[in-house]
Predict the structure.
Amino acid sequence: MLPAPDFLFDGPARGKCIVILAHGAGAPMDTPFMAAIAAGLAAEGLRVARFEFPYMAERRRSGRRKPPDREPVLIDTWRAAIAALGKPGKLVIGGKSMGGRMASLVADESDVAGLLCLGYPFHPPGKPDKLRTAHLEKLRTPALIVQGTRDPFGTKDDVAAYALSKKIHLYWSEDGDHDLKPRKASGRTHAEALAAAVAAAAQFISTLKG
């Protein structure tokens, strides 16, 4: 197993549970999106731990852009993060896009309390036939996927056709893109959309046994 990653913590040290969040493929753990989600969950009394995969941590150190690590490294990093933060039954794991997808691949084996995916990459943009959903059909871990209705990685119409596990709940952010950002014409702000997503996530986490 890889060594535990470095964590960025938010929220009370003795929070109701620990929510571990990983970043998406192209941006680090401290983007405005990740910071807003972490701060919002922390305000709900949850302990939030953000971390970076090795390639992103190296980018932070060197300033050189590198492509994402191969899937086995991403998965092993998740395993190390889970092992470092205590009893899996007290953990909710997930994250933005790729970070959430990698979490979904280890959720069942790790016996965590729940899974939180923020903008799940159901398929690459423009390639709806290249699905990343096979493991989601039999997922046993209670999960919430927060998705924008016009996310190019999986719109509301796209996802309606998928055979997903009954353990998966979907929260649709109206007019949201992959960052849940709505268009100005929608009458909603990005901050409002993120706050609503946090509320949905906090409500989901409150239902979990742990």
Q: What stands out?
A: Residues 107 and 179 are 23 Å apart (CA to CA). Residues 190-206 form the longest helix (17 residues).
